[in-house]
Amino acid sequence: MPTTPKASAALARQAWGRMFDYLMRTAPERSRALGRRGLTPNDARGLASLDRDRGRTMRSLAGEWECDASNATWIVDRLERFGFAERRTIASDRRVKLVVLTVKGERVRAELLDEFHTPPPGLLRLSPRDLAALARALEKLGGV
Amino acid sequence: MPTTPKASAALARQAWGRMFDYLMRTAPERSRALGRRGLTPNDARGLASLDRDRGRTMRSLAGEWECDASNATWIVDRLERFGFAERRTIASDRRVKLVVLTVKGERVRAELLDEFHTPPPGLLRLSPRDLAALARALEKLGGV
DNA sequence: TATTGTTATACTCTATAACTATA
DNA sequence: TATAGTTATAGAGTATAACAATA
Fold it and tell me: Is pTM beyond 0.70 here?
């Protein structure tokens, strides 16, 4: 395939722009999926940042969420009230709290992710060939 | 290409899941792009829903945003305070307000869209072949 | 003295209900 | 009487600053 860096950049912008627009167009459905569960986008992000095993300090969560520590306290309080997360203390430094998901929290997290990963109906109208090309190209995008 | 509906659905889920995850991973950068301009996600959605010509009634905006009419009032008030939008009255029904973008509002809207459409660096590491396949498949997704 | 996290507080955002103007 | 939009008000979410506990 004959090409130049400039042409490549133009293709990338085209592809990305379309991906972005498509995601934006499907945003209301995700918003409703949260609403049905009485959750906010913040709650979903909170669930996404946590797991059952690896405890996260309040500080690191505030860093990831680019918010104030007091706001992280508020968000985790909320997840705890839902029964989705819990704070644990560690012996080595009693100032620190480690936040982990509860069983319930992990279940809701998985449910949400499954729903968010369900392709919009329009995508199924693409040919298997196009779908395969899409999946393959996006796989290479993996860690970058 | 030999395939079945089931295999096709699996491919679609794979492609969509990867697209979704990639978009989520790049969300903080978009959040910062808004923050640099002192704008909220709501402001961006407001700008995206409006243009210079086609006036939108408050009611239709509230419908699109799936929020209460009073909240739409609040959002448009905010855009007006920024100088991004203005309300116009029409002679045929003096209850109705039509909201349009100002020149400034359109400029900021275009700036934001341009920034959001700028592909993340990782995308440029894909081969021209993959980028073309991506752009081509996504183009077919156009209106669905 | 520095760091982790919470509490106090004010400000912004969002929704429900009451209201004004027009149809 | 019904509809478009705004205002009044209360509640939820987010930030800054002061604080308590531990290192």
Answer: yes
Is the minimum distance from the CB of B32 to strand D below 7 Å?
Answer: no
AA identity, residue B14: Q
Across the interface, of A9, A28, A135, the residue whose CB is closest to B124 is A9
Task: Let me know: does A41 contact A34? Beta carbons within 8 Å.
Answer: yes
List, in order, residues 6 or more apart from B89 with CB less than 8 Å away.
B96, B97, B98
CA nearest neighbour of A123 among B112, B64, B20: B20
Q: What is the pLDDT of residues A22-52, one digit of tens each?
A: 999 999 999 999 999 989 999 999 999 999 9
Q: Chain B within 8 Å of A17 (Cβ-Cβ)?
A: yes
Residue in A with minimal Cα distance to B4: A128
- Check if residue B73 sits with its Cβ under 7 angstroms from strand D: yes
DSSP state letters, chain A: ----HHHHHHHHHHHHHHHHHHHHHTHHHHHHHHHHTT--HHHHHHHHH--SSS-EEHHHHHHHTTS-HHHHHHHHHHHHHHTSEEEEE-SS-TT-EEEEE-HHHHHHHHHHHHHHTSPPGGGGGS-HHHHHHHHHHHHHTTT-
Interface contact B135-A7, CB threshold 8 A: no
Summarised one tens digit per residue, pLDDT across range B38-78 is 999 999 999 999 999 999 999 999 999 999 899 999 999 99
User: pLDDT tens, A113-123?
Assistant: 999 999 999 99
